[in-house]
């Protein structure tokens, strides 16, 4: 069976470090416009139940730079879990393509897709987690700090799929992770337990943004209502009042702190325009590194087959 990329916790710390180092190497090649074609004659099927500009552009650009052909399949092209059984789609695509990337709603769909696939499956996002994003994030933090030692990450907002992948990363890399969310919007308890039982990192749950960001190296936020939650937008607007990342909040850290956001950002809501444009904002470095991290994932998975 091929190795897939579904959860960061499926990988050892050494394997994750290998991916980060490979991402840096591939980033240098890309920047230097080197010819690099490990996917010559190969195809990537990209399944999008959830649309995303960054995910499509980063995967498509990266795979084609590496010599392959990427095929986009939107919600109208393939009704995953609706028009056709997922296990049927998986087995058919395994005969056409060399790799699958899927960005889906229901997490059990990506698990089933991988279960029946004879080619590597990459999780481009589900409602539960977002491993490609967090691999790109930790790559970005490493680039800016030069080290991941004594790292404190404070996430302010909904305890969503971004948080779950950070929690899984914290079972492999030692760090102090703080999730600052209003009551009722905490992350999945089983995933929190996974971190706490690992004995690798420390976790703190907070409802007080000003104290949560004290001494933090990174403040991270995301939209308050993700895709599929827009009908909850009004209720979430009220619940998250006071959880906006603004200049006043960033000044509470007491140290030089980086700001991160996985995008798209709703400026003026979860984060102010001033913070997005500040010199400590590394949001667009994150966005760029999505492609390089994903390229590393694809090259690594392919190398295990070869």
Using the coordinates shown, work out and report the CATH topology of the largest domain.
Answer: Rossmann fold
- Provide the β-strand percentage band: 5-15%
Classify the helix fraction into a percent range: 40-55%
Number of domains: 2
Q: What is the CATH-assigned architecture of the largest domain?
A: 3-Layer(aba) Sandwich
**Sheet with the most strands, sense and barrel status:** 5 strands, parallel
What is the CATH first-level class name of the largest domain?
Alpha Beta
Helix/strand-derived category reads alpha/beta
What is the string of SSEs from the N terminus onward?
Answer: HEHEHEHEHEHEHEHEHHEHH
What is the CA-CA span between the terminal residues?
A: 13 Å
**Radius of gyration, in angstroms, nearest whole number:** 19 Å
Assign the CATH superfamily of the largest domain. Answer: Aspartate/ornithine carbamoyltransferase
Total number of helices: 12
What does the overall shape look like?
globular
**Number of DSSP strand runs:** 9
Low-confidence stretches: none
Write down the overall mean pLDDT.
Answer: 96
Strand order of the largest sheet: 7-6-5-8-9
């Amino acid at each position: 069976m091929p190795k897939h990329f579904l959860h960061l916790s499926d990988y050892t710390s050494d394997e994750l470090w290998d991916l980060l180092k490979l991402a840096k190497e591939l980033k240098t090649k890309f920047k230097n416009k080197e010819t690099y074609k490990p996917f010559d004659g190969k195809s990537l099927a990209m399944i999008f139940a959830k649309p995303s500009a960054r995910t499509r552009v980063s995967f498509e650009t990266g795979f084609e730079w590496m010599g392959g052909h990427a095929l986009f399949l939107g919600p109208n092209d393939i009704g995953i879990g609706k028009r056709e059984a997922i296990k049927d789609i998986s087995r058919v695509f395994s005969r056409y393509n060399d790799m699958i990337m899927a960005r889906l709603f229901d997490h059990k769909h990506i698990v089933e897709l991988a279960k029946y696939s004879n080619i590597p499956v990459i999780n481009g996002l589900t409602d539960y987690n977002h491993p490609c994003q967090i691999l790109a994030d930790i790559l970005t933090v490493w680039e800016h700090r030069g080290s991941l030692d004594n790292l404190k990450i404070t996430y302010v907002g909904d305890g969503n799929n971004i948080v779950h992948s950070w929690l899984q990363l914290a079972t492999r890399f030692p760090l102090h992770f703080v999730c600052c969310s209003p009551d009722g919007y905490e992350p999945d308890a089983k995933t929190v337990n996974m971190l706490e039982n690992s004995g690798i990192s420390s976790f703190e749950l907070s409802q007080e943004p000003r104290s949560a960001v004290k001494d933090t190296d990174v403040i991270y936020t995301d939209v308050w209502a993700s895709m599929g939650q827009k009908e909850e937008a009004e209720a979430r607007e009220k619940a998250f009042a006071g959880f906006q990342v603004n200049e006043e909040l960033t000044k509470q850290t007491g140290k030089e702190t980086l700001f991160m956001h996985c995008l798209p950002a709703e400026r003026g809501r979860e984060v102010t325009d001033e913070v997005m444009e500040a010199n400590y904002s590394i949001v667009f470095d994150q966005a760029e590194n999505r492609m390089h991290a994903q390229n590393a994932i694809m090259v690594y998975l392919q190398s295990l087959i070869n």
